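FORM 12-B: Structure-to-Sequence Request
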């Protein structure tokens, strides 16, 4: 009997476990999805309605909470209609956010806006109240009224209205460019701190492994292609240790990897199966901020250069965004960044090498386009110079300070090309944290 059961299990196809890349993609979809939480609200509302009907006979409600069948039907019908109307109102606000973000800010910001928890809570509360009231409405009979449920439905409407007001307050105040810049900068600095903790704990080593990796090299190609959204460093290192090899990830997080291009270089006589390696790297249609702080910096720069376009001509917004870019750079400048990081196993053997971004990469991303597009703006030139002076005065490592001096020379050259008049050139070269009006010669 047991032998037959074993044979049946052996012949049955065992489903493959979900890879890390698939789990990462599902998690990203769930975080950004706007229908999962509202759907859960519908289910929860229906279940709570059934519980309220069951409790109504067991719990004695005060006389003030008792309703006639016609009154209860009218109240619940009004709640159902109101929740549908409010859902349409919130959807309209969402469309306005999309238009505002893609038209005047940065389309990349939408990756963060989709994750707003308050928005999902509002939608879930509306759908939950709708399903709660509708389920109660179906239970009303001539000799039975769910008095407790009708009262709770009214309380749910009050909660929905409070959440709606909170959502409107956030919509009004947080859709300004400077508010979005602050949100993006916080998210980017959070990713930076996570990476810094990995380096401090010894999980990541800035040094490249000494000598050439041993064993023959096997190339693992990218199958589908896409933006490299993230990878699992610990699992990749453990996989390399299990097969006694050294794995090199050839592209940094944020790169678009075309199909058929080398994704891994594996050094060793027994390379892991390609499917296991590619299952530990997440590829998608666009970048995410989870392991890519440069993506947050990219969004900030996009907002600044949009403000500097001739169609908008708003250098003050660019100056405000530069405030958050400077805070971003101060956080990065105190770290010892490297173009390569190595992970070792418990015995200290190098197992995984991944590309990183140097300080120069981040600094160029932060200021190059703003300098090029804003060289003709007195505000932007003065604020950029104050930014560089602040970085030089912050006690950064000498290598990082030299990169700042190089950018300062580029700024001087750009200002010299735009302002041939000595007086205007001197004004543009004056550092000012407010762009204009912060006081001539103000420094960090």
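FORM 12-B RESPONSE
SEQUENCE OUT:
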């Amino acid at each position: 009997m047991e032998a037959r059961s074993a044979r049946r299990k052996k012949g049955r196809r065992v489903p493959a476990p979900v890879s890390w890349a698939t789990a990462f993609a599902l998690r990203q979809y769930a975080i950004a999805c706007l229908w999962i939480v509202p759907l859960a609200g519908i289910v929860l509302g229906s279940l709570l309605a059934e519980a309220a009907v069951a409790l109504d006979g067991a719990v004695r409600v005060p006389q003030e909470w008792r309703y006639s069948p016609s009154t209860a039907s009218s109240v619940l019908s009004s709640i159902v209609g109101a929740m549908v109307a409010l859902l349409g109102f919130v959807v309209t606000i969402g469309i306005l956010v999309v238009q505002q973000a893609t038209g005047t800010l940065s389309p990349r910001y939408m990756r963060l806006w989709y994750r707003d928890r308050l928005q999902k809570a509002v939608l879930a509360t509306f759908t939950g109240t709708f399903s709660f009231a509708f389920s109660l409405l179906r239970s009303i009979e001539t000799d039975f009224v769910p008095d407790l449920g009708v009262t709770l439905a009214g309380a749910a409407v009050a909660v929905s209205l409070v959440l709606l007001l909170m959502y409107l307050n956030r919509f009004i105040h947080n859709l300004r460019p400077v508010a979005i810049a602050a949100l993006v900068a916080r998210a980017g600095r959070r990713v930076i701190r996570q990476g810094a903790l990995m380096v401090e704990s010894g999980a990541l080593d800035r040094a490249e492994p000494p000598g050439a990796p041993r064993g023959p090299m096997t190339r693992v190609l990218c199958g589908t292609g896409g933006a490299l959204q993230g990878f699992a460093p610990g699992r990749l290192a453990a996989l390399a240790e299990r097969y006694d090899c050294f794995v090199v990830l050839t592209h940094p997080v944020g790169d678009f990897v075309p199909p058929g291009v080398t994704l891994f270089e594996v050094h060793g006589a027994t390379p892991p199966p390609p499917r296991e390696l590619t299952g530990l790297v997440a590829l998608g249609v666009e970048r995410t901020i989870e392991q890519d702080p440069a993506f947050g910096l990219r969004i900030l720069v996009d907002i600044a250069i949009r403000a500097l376009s001739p169609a908008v001509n708003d250098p003050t917004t660019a100056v405000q965004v530069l405030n958050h870019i400077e805070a971003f750079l101060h956080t990065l400048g105190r770290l010892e960044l490297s173009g390569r990081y190595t992970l070792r196993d418990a015995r200290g053997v190098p197992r995984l090498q991944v590309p990183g971004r140097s300080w120069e990469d981040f600094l160029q991303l932060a200021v190059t386009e703003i300098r090029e597009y804003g060289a003709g703006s007195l505000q932007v030139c003065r604020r950029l110079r104050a930014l560089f002076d602040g970085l030089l005065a912050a006690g950064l490592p000498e290598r990082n300070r030299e990169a700042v001096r190089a950018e300062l020379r580029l700024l001087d050259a750009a200002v010299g090309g735009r302002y041939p008049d000595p007086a205007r050139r001197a004004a543009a070269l004056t550092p000012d944290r407010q762009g204009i009006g912060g006081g001539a010669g103000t420094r960090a």
